[in-house]
Amino acid sequence: MATAPRTSTLDRPPPDDLGRSARRRHGLFWIGGLVAALAATIVLAVCIGAVGLSPATVVRVVGHHTLGVPATPDWSAPLDAIVWQVRLPRVLLGAAVGAALAVCGVALQAMVRNLLADPYLLGITSGASTGAAGAILFGFGAGLGGNALPASAFLGALAASLAVFALARASGRITSLRLLMAGVAVGYALYAATGFLIFASDSAEGSRSVLFWLLGSLGLARWGVPLTVVLVVVCATVVTLALWSRHLDALAIGDETAHALGVSPTRLRVRLLAVVSLCVGAVVAASGGIGFVGLVIPHLARRLVGAAHGRAVPVAALVGAGFLVWADVVARVSLSPRELPLGIVTAIVGAPFLLLLVRRFHHTSP
């Protein structure tokens, strides 16, 4: 009786290759699903507000402005303005800011080898807050017109990152601990500077505006240079960190492993600091200080697709984008017609997650 030919072991991929292939398919499955979910999220978020809209209407309005279809709109001018001028820029900015904070959190946690690291860690957010407070309360950058606030915030974030780099470099080779300590020191100093500016101002309305901005808001989102800059910077950051994923893997394991793999930890940390500083500075300048996104989302991404940064970076970007869009929807509608600061919503979600993380560390620590 004829028997089926036996398959040679040489025709089968090695077990490690099988595992790597399965992990790659798993990562692609999540990335594809999250891309579809983010597209649906953007459409639904534009629909929700004081004036409810149908997804079909939103798609038609966006299609008219981007593709010219239909050629002649059959909806009212106010509805067109709500979709195209008010809600869509805000939703896109929220997606960009969420993606940026999430991937920067992934990079920072690898850079300083600390699972509690986030963009607040290096004082960049505090620097942006100081610049924004100066613009709102004392008219810094008044010659820039409507771009004075984001420009001042970005310059403050850039100055903070340079200060962190100088302090970490002054004591010798840049290490995780030195970056961490320098970031904390600069952050507290700039937090005090922002408080002093608020206290020194005699404008109650200006102080209220600064406090609202410090808690995060997407209310400044409009078509124009600031939104375009944020979208370009965020896309470039995600692509850059994805290309550096193997280096991030080595750095997260330890400096000795990185050296053994031909990666210079000091040079890589300098590059990461520059990329993260520019990205966080750009998004914080547009949205204010939004906490917990850069802390919570990286852990969630690693739970979904593992610790390898080649998968964790794009998944974190997609999850962070969707998370912040829905957080902004809650901020817009929960106390309508008033708007809740976005940082409050992210803290409500992030604080319990942090407690769960602490509990997990408690059970896994020896």
Automatic annotation (TrEMBL):
Localization in the cell: Cell membrane
Keyword Cell membrane in record: yes
UniProt name for this protein: ABC-type Fe3+-siderophore transport system, permease component
Topology with respect to the bilayer: Multi-pass membrane protein
One Gene Ontology term of the molecular function aspect: transmembrane transporter activity
Pfam family for this entry, one: FecCD
Gene Ontology BP, a term: siderophore-iron import into cell
Keywords, alphabetical: Cell membrane, Membrane, Transmembrane, Transmembrane helix, Transport
GO annotations of cellular component type: plasma membrane
Family label: Belongs to the binding-protein-dependent transport system permease family. FecCD subfamily.
Residues passing through the membrane, by range: 28-53, 88-108, 120-142, 148-167, 179-200, 220-244, 272-300, 312-333, 340-358
Domain of life: Bacteria
Presence of keyword Metal-binding: no
